[in-house]
Write a structure and sequence with these properties.
This protein is of the alpha/beta class. 35% of the residues lie in helices and 20% in strands. Strands 15, 16, 17, 18, 19, 20, 21 and 22 form an 8-stranded mixed β-sheet that branches. About 1% of the residues have low confidence.
Length: 610
Amino acid sequence: MSTISSAEVEHFVDTVFGGLDESVQIMIGERLGRRVIACGERLWSAGEAADYIAFVLRGRLRVRVVEADGDVRDAGEIGRGQAVGVAEVIGRRARVGGVTAMRETELLLLSAADFEAIVDHAPAFVVPLMRSLATRLGAALRGEQGYTAPETIAIVPLDPHTPQHLLLERLGHAAGRYASVHVVDAYRVDSAFRPGSAREPLGGPESEAIERWLDERDDSHDLDLYLADPEDTPWTRRCLSRADRILLVASAGASPELREVERLIAADGAVPNSAHLELLLLHPESCAQPSGTAAWLEPRSIERIHHVRGERRGDYRRVARRLLGRCVGLVLSGGAARGMCHIGVIRALLEAGVPIDAVGGASAGGGVGVLLAADLSPDRIVEAIKETWLDSKVFSRPKVPLVSVLESDEVREAMVRWLGDLQMEDLWRDCYVVATNLSRARLEVIDRGPAWHALLSTAAIPGLLPPTFRNGDVLVDGGVLDNLPIGVMLRRNPGKVIASDVGDASDSIRADRSLQVCPSNAALLLERINPFNTDTVVPWIGTTLFATVTCASRYRDPELMDDLLYSFRPDLAGLPALAFDDPEPLLDAGYRAAQRAIEAGVFAEYIDGE
């Protein structure tokens, strides 16, 4: 383990601690050691003794923990200037998770004994470390532990005909609205040194000087965008070796086959890197709807997809916000007919210029979300929902209840008429719906496959509508387990969440106060036939099943709620839960709720103006 120079100590202290007393710097320099680990190499394993802290000088680490049920969960990433292992050293306990390198990573190590000696001499030394630890703990509590905003993104064009330099400038300009961005390509390196230097073999006479030049610029910006070549060149290898995330870019109409340049980052490739892969597909300005995305995903392990049309600034800004961890996500609850309120909320947000980068939901909210992600206008969304749930007369066609009380054939046919063979991965905005997997007793997040099937699955109120099936598993309404899936949104797209919750049906389910048990079906039927009787107030089976599903709306994880930009709960008093024939009051309730928040300035800093 090599030592670190005084100049490196000074730079390290300034980066991590914002500067410390010279005597403390000397003390740190005498105790720090250097170590370089390769991609996939383990720094330590869970259960090992915590005898040192590691600081990342260059590269990226992934932390994984083993849950009580044996499942392995990503607990976050550690990037340049950050520390790992602080909590265990301070608490004098064993490692709680395993840490591996996502790419070649250079570390500075400080033993537990030396850490305590420095803290005794300079207590301020520990304050920045504890702030960083608190930030990561807060992210974990909000469900964001699977994502850490990248510092360096390698943009890899998959074809030489991709308008790569134009894309780099547009994406850099879009990201520059929200962060300090360093945009670099081979041309800029050549300009700083000499023509051709960027593509000279790594390890050449200027290689170290280029690395230092890049490091200096990286340290002074929030985000670095590196444009690689579309083929295997020394510059491409340098970009990939520095990347925290890799953004593959291709024209949607090109061949989706795996390219040779992509093999560079494989475990046995020339530049192994386990950074998260994202895919950006470029579409013509006139493209109405993406298609064929599944063919691009099949040979690759893609974490997130981005669709961009022509020169649309809004599309590039959406990509930039998602990459920076500043996504504005919209989460919509279940609520049957009351889901029409969501459309009023959406109309007001769009009119005000509030961006919606991603959308997710349960049951009725999931249906509205998919139609929004497909770029339908609010008016068209209303038409689609009325045709699906009202014109199909699904609630007036009970059947012999072997699987469910109602039939969904007409509903399915209407969904197919509106969505055709559209796949979830082909939607313009990132979109998911949730369903309850009864076979595995878990929440199922659906973001791939036929959109009509996703809608049918998330809205299958158990007992009322038939379940759907997927690989032999039985799926019903997602609201059973999570009627407002905010946590799913934060794990997929960290940032801020706007929630619209219309799922509390407690006001619509009541019974006569004099009753202790429900009268028999025969007695209730006779009562309704007799025109001289007053009907006993008891909930209809559909109302009971709907209220059962939406009970989850009444309970919220306070940590997740703290991360909301705003939560809409429109005034639903007197509005129907299962009647789709009069949407206007529902649309108006949602619109008015959103207008009040907009006028109060809640979204002022997020409005996507020019």
